[in-house]
Amino acid sequence: MKYEAVIGLEVHAQLLTGSKLFCGCSTKFGSDPNTQVCPVCLGMPGVLPVLNRKAVEFAVKMALAVNCRINPRSIFARKNYFYPDLPKGYQISQYSEPLAEHGHLDIDADGTKKIGITRIHMEEDAGKLLHGEGPEDENFSFVDPNRTGVPLIEIVSEPEMRSSDEAQAYLRAMRDILVYLEICSGNMEEGSFRCDANVSVRPVGAEKLGTKAELKNMNSFKFVKEAIDYEIQRQIDVVEGGGKVVQETRLFDASKGVTASMRSKEEAHDYRYFPEPDLLPLMVENELVEKLRGALPELPRQKRERFISEYGIPSYDAGVLTSSKGLADYYESVVKATNEPKVSSNWVMGEVLRLLKEDSRDVKDCPVTPQSLAGLIKSVKDGVVSGTGAKEVFEEMYRTGKSASEIIKAKGLVQISNEDELSKVIAEIIKANPENLERYKAGKTQLMGFFVGEAMKATKGKANPQVINKLLKEKLG
Ligand code: ADP
Ligand code: ZN
Ligand code: MG
């Protein structure tokens, strides 16, 4: 029998507000443990939460970017459970009335596929447990509550993905949007962008969904794919072996590449959800929604399509260039100054990204401004410097911050395009090689390469090859 995988994703994204969701504590990542806490986020008796307006605006922006309807009224709820990283003994979340519903996201999968977004709700993060690994503390776990109360949105998809590749495409698209909106760092290693994958299998053609397992603990796109692929095969093996998939939560072990059962699946009623009595319903006015909608930036997909149609560059180029907003802006500035979309794309995708990657630098810290790069591209076009020489110049610009013309001069890389000067060089070469000239004239036209090579040698590689070729053709007839 043939099987089909069914995947639904729950994404948690940390919002880049300066302070937490219900108190004024900092959300900064990586500070010393227990330094960003107060009675509110530590769950002391008698304190009251105050909702962070910025967090609501960020959540609404994301909801609009993925085509959700914003509920004018939503309710915070207490989700009760005990865990050492949860000082209050409950998490403030949203349950029956979330902030937003009924959205969708287009992903790249054999063309474009529309994946439904069930809901987006707001909630607070829990603290972090650090499990000792050293010889002295291997039997201990540590609690760092700096993260308690950091604002999150949870984005729940419909079970509409059919492969690990689609799941990966969905996650990438989701993360790109969050980062473009500048509301989430998207950093998976730091846990700012996390995902749980719900996976089931069913016979091809069946309508009814199979029993799902929920996979946790995947902190890279690669692990998400590996975990899902492993889980699909595991479930198929269970079914083929005459067994039944049980509903459970499974952890991915990246070092072994397997998923293992963590606990049987908890049900909503286990959490004893009830409306948070310390917070009023959240009313989001239409005026605010429309204001935020109007201020949405161009999103990655739209930008990619515009680059293809406006600049006529291949879709591969457009994909790379729009992978971050900063890179896209950089590219557009270069094009504006050069009016050479494809040449500019080659430079940005090639030399610029290569050097930035080498230094793990962000494009916003690129030492070569788009204007300087444009200057260099123009120098190549005008024949001032050769294409190969220009790469050397660019590297030097990147290292020293000097301008293209300064370096071209200092390094003696100025290309010779002057026809009179080059004609003299050619005349001498022809004079020095009478036999080759005879053979050329007798029909051995491949010798053109020989003459070009001699001319380049004579000028120490500075001759403009196009001009040399043109002059030689004239001279040799
Ligand atoms: P639960 O109540 O167990 O949390 P939900 O209905 O809230 O389940 O769905 C959680 C996530 O699991 C959603 O992303 C949904 O698309 C996905 N999902 C639900 N049923 C299945 C299934 N049978 N197979 C795969 N994913 C599923
Ligand atoms: Zn606090
Ligand atoms: Mg759920």
Describe the structure concisely:
By secondary structure, this protein is an alpha+beta fold. It contains 15 helices and 16 strands. A hairpin with a 4-residue loop joins β13 (248-253) and β14.
- Give the proportion of residues in helices: 25-40%
Tally the helices: what do you get? Answer: 15
Beta-strand residue fraction: 15-25%
- C-alpha-based Rg, rounded: 30 Å
* Spatial strand order of the main sheet: 2-6-7-10-1-11-12-13-14
Q: List the bound ligands.
A: adenosine-5'-diphosphate, zinc ion, magnesium ion
* Average of the residue pLDDT scores: 92
pLDDT < 50 stretches: none
Q: Please tally the β strands and state the result.
A: 16
| Largest sheet features | 9 strands, mixed
Structural class: alpha+beta
How many domains comprise the coordinates?
Answer: 3
**Cα-to-Cα separation, first versus last residue:** 72 Å
The global form is elongated
How would you portray this structure in words?
This protein is of the alpha+beta class. The protein has 3 domains: 3-290, no CATH class; 298-410, no CATH class; 419-476, Arc Repressor Mutant, subunit A (Orthogonal Bundle). The chain has 15 helices and 16 strands. The chain has helices spanning 53-65, 164-180, 221-240, 286-294, 300-311, 315-321, 325-338, 341-358, 370-381, 387-400, 404-410, 419-432, 434-441, 448-458, 465-476, and strands spanning 3-14, 69-70, 73-74, 76-80, 90-94, 100-108, 112-124, 128-131, 141-144, 151-157, 193-203, 213-216, 248-253, 258-264, 274-275, 282-283. Helix 7 (325-338) packs across helix 8 and helix 12 (419-432) crosses helix 14 (448-458). The radius of gyration is 30 Å and the shape is elongated. The mean pLDDT is 92.
